[in-house]
């Protein structure tokens, strides 16, 4: 389970708390400062801390990235780069994001006209509802699809 706290004004991360591994007691807490993020990992009774320099703003925590996709300027052909802080791996990445088309999608919750948003680096594709509030309708992460 992951809990991400972000600033409402610009979605800049404040903190992210997560269970690092399924079925284990390892946990992580990322606390964002002005220039660094401090990641505290607790595993098998030991605590380890890692400090990661933050990229230039705007940047987002990896755990909130799929929700940031809902704020893109939706237009076929739009492409951009999001700065991603992957606290669990102690690194940052520049993630290319592309709006590659529009498709009709049917899921258990209904039928939606969607923007197709691809992140080739992560081999991920999201179908974002064209109508506001731009829900994530379908999400494909490599070979595993997560449905709402």
Broad structural category: mainly beta
Q: Please give the number of β-strands.
A: 12
Tell me about the largest β-sheet: 7 strands, mixed
Give the overall shape, derived from the CA principal axes: elongated
pLDDT under 50 segments (min length 5)? none
Overall pLDDT level: 87
Percentage of residues assigned to helices = under 10%
- Read across the widest sheet, the strand sequence of neighbours is 6-7-8-9-10-11-12
Distance between the termini: 16 Å
Calculate Rg over CA atoms.
16 Å
The H/E string reads EEEEEEHEEEEEE
Query: Count of helical segments?
Result: 1
Strand residue percentage: over 45%
Domain count: the total is: 1
Walk me through the topology.
Blueprint: E1 2-6, E2 13-19, E3 27-32, E4 36-43, E5 46-53, E6 59-61, H1 65-68, E7 79-86, E8 91-107, E9 110-119, E10 124-129, E11 136-141, E12 144-146
Parallel strand pairs: 6-7
Antiparallel strand pairs: 1-2, 2-3, 3-4, 4-5, 7-8, 8-9, 9-10, 10-11, 11-12
Describe what this molecule looks like in 3D.
The chain is mainly beta. It has one helix and twelve strands, in the order ββββββαββββββ. It has one domain (2-146). It has one helix at residues 65-68, and strands at 2-6, 13-19, 27-32, 36-43, 46-53, 59-61, 79-86, 91-107, 110-119, 124-129, 136-141, 144-146. The protein has a seven-stranded mixed beta sheet. Strand 11 (136-141) and strand 12 (144-146) form a beta hairpin. The protein is elongated, with a radius of gyration of 16 Å.
């Amino acid at each position: 389970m992951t809990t991400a706290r972000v600033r409402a004004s610009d979605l800049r991360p404040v903190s992210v708390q997560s269970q690092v591994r399924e079925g284990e007691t390892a946990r992580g807490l990322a606390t964002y400062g002005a220039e660094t993020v401090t990641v505290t990992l607790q595993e098998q009774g030991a605590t380890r801390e890692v400090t990661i320099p933050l990229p230039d703003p705007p940047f987002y925590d990896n755990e909130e990235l799929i929700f940031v996709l809902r704020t893109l300027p939706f237009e076929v052909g739009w492409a951009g780069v999001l700065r991603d802080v992957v606290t669990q791996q102690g690194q940052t990445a520049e993630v290319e994001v592309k709006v590659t088309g529009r498709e009709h999608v049917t899921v258990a919750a209904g039928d939606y006209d969607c923007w197709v948003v691809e992140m080739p680096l992560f081999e991920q594709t999201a179908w974002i509802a064209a109508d506001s509030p731009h829900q994530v309708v379908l999400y494909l992460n490599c070979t595993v699809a997560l449905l709402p």
